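so i finally got all the pieces together for this one. its two components total, 226 residues if u count the protein bits. some of the lines might not be protein, just check the labels. i wanna see the whole assembly predicted at once instead of chain by chain like last time, that was a mess tbh
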Amino acid sequence: AQSVTQLGSHVSVSEGALVLLRCNYSSSVPPYLFWYVQYPNQGLQLLLKYTSAATLVKGINGFEAEFKKSETSFHLTKPSAHMSDAAEYFCAVSSITGNQFYFGTGTSLTVIP
Amino acid sequence: EAGVAQSPRYKIIEKRQSVAFWCNPISGHATLYWYQQILGQGPKLLIQFQNNGVVDDSQLPKDRFSAERLKGVDSTLKIQPAKLEDSAVYLCASTWTGADTQYFGPGTRLTVL
């Protein structure tokens, strides 16, 4: 069985500050891990993914995430927040077959000017 | 490359009525998913198709929900009869066989009054 837990349903940061969105996973098999972003009234867009290659994964829009097996974590970071980063962020896990795809409950990011 | 298309974008119905949603995946994508995203929650997988066959429908409420993908391309999701708790955004996603990244459509927002 697989699942993800996103700590903090709402995160607020000042423009230019570090963004840190937390995700912990539970998986009985080596997982594939994903971060998706959802802007208002739009579908989900892939930010980045971990598929058992490099543990530090770089994505679009300056985001990156590090897979830490010992901590079962896959936290999303961005050094400097921009107003356009305000959105809902979802962590997701799947098996290597791509089946059994599970999303977390999401974290709403607010960027304060 | 055209993305995943969904229609309608918005639908308002009264409880006990029927409703259908349509999805056209990205050309060449054999795998198609339907998700239900209730406000404030992450997307929940309802059904996964591989071509015109069902791979996983374990979380589909089969007493009222049905889905088909007769020719292995377009798909429809139907709710009959709708309940208040069916109010949600219904997302369609597609990908290539065995691929790990899903591509999402903009979703259909259903309101049941």
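Residues 47 and 73 of chain A are 17 Å apart (CA to CA).
The first strand of chain A starts at residue 2 and ends at 7.
anyway lmk what u think
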